[in-house]
Amino acid sequence: MPDFITFGIADVVDILLLAIILYYMYKLLRGTAAVRIFWVIVALFVLWKLLSALHINVVSAIIGQIISVGVIALIVVFQPEIRKFLLMLSHTRIIKALRFHKKEDELYKPDINAVVRACRRMSDSKTGALIVFEKDTPLDECINTGERLDAIVSRELIENIFFKNSPLHDGALIIRHHRICAARCILPVSDREDISTDLGLRHRSAIGVTVLSDAVVVVVSEQTGSISLCRGGEITHGISPVVLETMLTDIFVNKKDEVTPEK
């Protein structure tokens, strides 16, 4: 009986799983130099299977050896991307649904109010700011690069931290468990090639940390005073304080996965 007649449910599941893995890997690597290496690996694997099916044994064996030996090298080369991929899977809706979340939605309202009020004033004065809301993914590596504060989230303190003559103004402020955990923190900078050249280091850092984690980041541009919000590696520019408050409320209080604000 021909093989295609025995095609069953297990084969369908196998193909679907492969498609999902490839999709998330491409989504993760999109816009980076690593995406080219990814397509070369895919093409090499397809060529190997094709040559094996055609019984071109010598070349097939050579390519097979390259692939088998190169797996270890690829793990080393793609270590950051593999980490991002595993984090991305942990942030999918299915995995999130299996987690137990303590209901503390109302506790975010004072934090949001303080951040929005501070951003409104810093936007008017064109004071640069980078404010990170930690969610489920711990940001200990970033926190350890800065100065620990453990202070109440308040408009006055946020403005003082980012005042241009303040020793803590350069870097990110991280909010953890409704407290300002640390300031002057260094965030990972995104190396994506599709990011606009108009965006500075603050915006690239916001994209970088939200790719590696489920954090939500608010950015105030020092050049234009424009307010931006970044989550999941995607950034929304030029939002008003009112829209910022709506977006943060939808994320932390209303628990909406997708937010499409009106600018």
Model description:
By secondary structure, this protein is an alpha+beta fold. The protein has 2 domains: about 90 residues, no CATH class; about 150 residues, YojJ-like (1 (3-Layer(aba) Sandwich). It is about 50% helix and about 15% strand. Strands 2-4-3-1-5-6-7 form a 7-stranded mixed sheet, sandwiched between helices. Strand 6 and strand 7 form a beta hairpin. The C terminus is likely disordered.
Short note summarizing the structure:
By secondary structure, the protein is an alpha+beta fold. Helices cover 51% and strands 15% of the residues. It has 10 helices and 7 strands.
Key features of this structure:
263 residues; alpha+beta; YojJ-like (1; 2 domains; 10 helices; 7 strands; 51% helix; disordered C terminus
What's the topology here?
Blueprint: H1 9-29, H2 34-53, H3 57-77, H4 79-90, H5 93-98, H6 108-125, E1 129-133, H7 140-143, E2 147-152, H8 155-162, E3 172-176, E4 179-185, H9 201-212, E5 216-220, E6 227-231, E7 234-239, H10 241-252
Parallel strand pairs: 1-3
Antiparallel strand pairs: 1-5, 2-4, 3-4, 5-6, 6-7
